[in-house]
Amino acid sequence: MRVLISTTAAIALAALGASAASAQSTSNWTGFYVGGQLGYAWQPRDGDEQVVFDRNLDGNFGDAFPNFAPGSCGGSPTSAAPGTGCTKDNDGTTWKVHAGFDYQFGDTSGPVVGAVVEYGKSYLVDSVTAFSTTPAVYKMQARLRNDGGIRARGGYSFNTGTLIYGTGGLAYGKIRNRFSTSNGVNTFTVDNPTKDAWGYNYGGGIEQKVGPFSVGALYLFTALKNNDSTVRASGGPAGGPFTAQNASGTDFKRTFSKFGYHSLMATVSYRF
């Protein structure tokens, strides 16, 4: 991760330095542009996330479940043994294509406002694992398949052709919810396995004009709503732990309602 972040920053800084001397005549940002982004995405530490249960299927989660006394942890299990803990969720590369429009107040320097729409992929998986006394592990996994959004941005352009800006707006992601377990006795069904998740993002960046192009660096934090996927545990021996309070089974749910991640990207745009 550090290598890619350093590379992203180096690309942006090299472009800024190389073009500063020649940007005077092309410093106005008004117009349309298209381009792309490439960088790295990582998730906040989520070691405190838990799996909660609705044993009587009344829609309220948090029922006491002594069979899961070993508890839960954020991430994937290191083994099926209770209390062995979880590995950190994966980080990964991210890329997007984008198109937008900017308007600058002033000829060579001044405020800039605009909007951009983007779409691409961030290779991230967010997991949480529960341990039972059997022993067995129960892992709920959310995989981000693709993401995008529409953002407003506003900042200030200097007469060197440099733009510093803040940005934020509506975010979208396609999330695949999965479940896996070492329990081979019961039946497990994922509700709402694939969903269109909506949320928000915000951040900031810097861009530098290089002839008809602009290059820069962009940081974003994105949070997508993913709180309505559940897992139904059913079947197994009559009166077993999952059917003791309701013959139809027990529902699982994760406690964190959002799929959140940071991203740092190098950007390049062709400006019309």
Would you spell out the secondary-structure blueprint of this structure?
Elements: H1 2-19, E1 31-42, E2 51-54, E3 71-74, E4 76-77, E5 86-87, E6 92-104, E7 110-122, E8 124-132, E9 136-157, E10 162-181, E11 187-191, E12 194-210, E13 213-225, E14 230-234, E15 250-254, E16 258-271
Antiparallel strand pairs: 1-6, 1-16, 2-15, 3-8, 4-5, 6-7, 7-9, 8-9, 9-10, 10-12, 11-14, 12-13, 13-16, 14-15
SSE string, helices as H and strands as E? HEEEEEEEEEEEEEEEE
Mean pLDDT, nearest integer? 89
* Arrangement of strands in the largest sheet: 1-6-7-9-10-12-13-16
Strand content: over 45%
The description of the largest β-sheet is:
8 strands, antiparallel, barrel
Approximate helicity band: under 10%
- Low-pLDDT stretches are 7-25
Distance between the termini: 34 Å
Radius of gyration: 24 Å
Shape, per Cα inertia axes? elongated
Task: List the total number of helices.
Answer: 1
Extended strand count: 16
Structural class: mainly beta
Structure notes:
By secondary structure, the protein is mainly beta. It has a domain at 44-90 and 102-205 and 222-259. Helix content is 7%, strand content 59%. It contains one helix and 16 strands. The radius of gyration is 24 Å and the shape is elongated.
